[in-house]
Design goal:
The protein has 689 residues and is mostly beta strands. It contains two helices and 63 strands. It has six domains: 38 residues; 76 residues, Immunoglobulins (Immunoglobulin-like), CATH 2.60.40.10; 76 residues, Sandwich (Immunoglobulin-like), CATH 2.60.40; 102 residues, Immunoglobulin-like, CATH 2.60.40; 125 residues; 204 residues, no CATH class. Helix content is 4%, strand content 46%. The strands form twelve sheets. The protein has a 21-stranded parallel beta sheet that branches.
Amino acid sequence: MHELNQRRSRCMTRYAVAGLLGMVLVGCNSTESDDGTPETGGPAAPTVSLSASATTINSGETAGLSWSSTNATSCTASGGWSGSQPTSGSLQTAALASDTTFTLSCTGDGGTAEDSVTVSVTPLQTPAPVVTLTATPSSVQLNGSAVLSWSSTDATACNASGGWSGSKATTGSQTVGPLTATTSYSIECSGDGGMDGDTVTVTVSGGGGGSSAVSGFVDSSLIDVDGLARVYIYAGSVTPDDQDGDGGDPAFIADVKPVQNSCTFSYAMQSLQAGTYTLAFTSQAQADDPASDDVLDFRGTSVVTVDTSGTVKNFDAANILRVGAGRQYATIGAAADAAGNDTVIEIDAGDYPDDIVVWRQDRIVLRGVGGRAHVRGTQVIPFESGNDLRNGKGLWLVRGSDIKVENIEFSGARVTDENGAGIRNEGFNLSICNGYFHDNENGILGGAYGQFLIEYSEFDNNGYGDIGRTHNIYVDEGPSVGDKLVFRYNYSHRANIGHLLKTRARENYILYNRIMDENDGTSSYNIDVPNGGLTYVIGNLIQQGPDTDNSVIVAYGAEGLSGGRTHELYLVNNTIVNDRGSGTFMDVAGGTAVFAARNNLYVGGGGIYSGKTPDTDATNITTSSPGLVSRTGFDYRLTGTSPARDAGSAPGSAGGFSLVPAAHYVHPAAMEDRPADGDIDVGAYEYSP
């Protein structure tokens, strides 16, 4: 204090002297050193403080940064962030995948200061797959069947072993049977985090009472779509004969039926006495008149011994060619060149780029084994007359009759006129089972000549995408009365501008499918029957998405009703959801003779009918509160509070075809029997707690 007072005294003295001399004195507010020299202070240096809300986080998380500064006019970020920042503030980082250092430099008149903070990131452990496999029921009688159901999390691939085999979807269900012995089934799934598996055993109880059974599978190559398949069973070792009232008649006859969720067939006969029997298969049982002596074509005849433990007799393909690495043929085309009529070509699962084939043989089966075989187009297919590889139509062109395509994947089909197909059909009685058609200009394109059967197949993102003239499935009409499309247990979704299903067939059986835009599909109509015809739409899950290219969900007769047809439309027990919020559920041409709508569940906004209104409009429900398990997740099963429960009425039959729904769609591209539970529920599903 004494020193400060001395400085003030000296300053006052200087003011006095300056006043006498008429001078202006500057600087009396500054300090002096002890020797009297003024001490002038410069601008203060900046300070900066930077911190993080958490300095250790998990991969994919964010951290909060906060900072403040003094004596600064600007700040610049570097390291894990960048750009100019205010002199004080806070922000949330982007998701971090690795250790990151954030630096902030702030500048003022007094210089530059800097601070940094490091956020350490703990890598996430990739979760291991978790697999669950169940059997319903887990105990069956001899020759019974069970449904295997499995699900997994964090898995990308699954393989089956034990009583079944081959690659499987990561979630699904499959019927196994007829079962003649206790059997264990295993599934193992893998993902980035490792592997997991599960096993289930189905216990088979014997027939008891000294009775026996015989059962087995029948290869699809033996099945005639126009015939009736049965196994004739004779006592002893005999030459097979028809039913005609003589001593050579079969003791038993077993029907051959499709095995659910597969491309094969089976038979079973119980309550046989132990002993020796002759078994013979025929697909001509419809021609067996018990009152006359008929000539039937029997195949796979064999003599078997049946005992109380049960006997298995399979009827296998007679002529098989195999394709794949290390097989007899390396390419599908090479096997096609060698194949004659009545041949099965088994194609190992794998990639077959540009394996383009024109199939002219009759009664052949083209079958992927060990998983789907992938026929993948990589280039545009031009047209050159006489050159199958440049057919200008698609990856496979079918011209033969009674061809079956099983377990094959098709993608990348492109042709010069932008109308290429995975399969282009020009043949009679084509059957497609468990196919996968994606990213083609058309999934399938061709006529319904005879019966065109498509089942257990998936169609995704097909269509050229220009003006909607290419589609997931496009079926043209056949030339004859009775030509028909049977489209069942399929999953068609996300067509590129075109329709999810377009059919000009004279008759259409559209049964138990999932036909949806989902969240991002841009299809036009979900179902388009542009020229009418006898059409049954039963038990389907149909959804119009928010990005659809057309406001109509189902269209019938939009391009005019063709002459020479029965124009009847039966819409029964479907669940139809409009997530577009506007538009029309059903647009039906005015000249339609019969339009019956019964037990349908209409969900969402928009008008229900335009054009012709239903002749029968019974027990349909329109609601925005349908009580579905998950509308946004496209799980349209009913909850216990759904207004659709027990709200339906008996559908009856029409044209000799039962309208009573017999199945549920099971995702993906599968089915199960629909239970009978008192009054029928409205919609595609019967409630099950």
